[in-house]
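Entry 14. Ran structure prediction on the chain below.
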Amino acid sequence: MSSTVFLGNLPPWVTADDIKAWLVADNLVADSVKVIRNPETQESKGFAFIEAPNEEEMNSIIRRFDRAPLEDKLLRANPAQPPKGRTGAPRVAPAAGVGAPQGPRDDRARRGGRKHRRTNAPQTAFAQELAKAL
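Output, structure tokens:
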């Protein structure tokens, strides 16, 4: 079983060094700390993963940080779950006819039930190239 802690509801200013300092202050041990950031803006997404050396340490980290106040927020800490839909194998498009929409109703459901409207707004060069590729 993994000994990874999900630490959520973090303010955007929190860094991995901040979390490491908090762990050291409470005599807790972590193998690594990773604050998850938006790849485009490098802003924090408000959560981090802490790799604990074992389950006992993981549980200690969770007890210390779950529902701990920070600024006007309560932190959330719990065992990390594996990403949904990721099995390690690359995704393969379904064969023709398999899993394909069966009509307008299925197409709407696949898109979250919302109708998409096309606008005549000018597109960026990137958007035009992307549309060509798709």
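The beta strands are 4-8, 32-37, 44-51, 69-70, 73-74, 76-79. Will compare against last week's run tomorrow.
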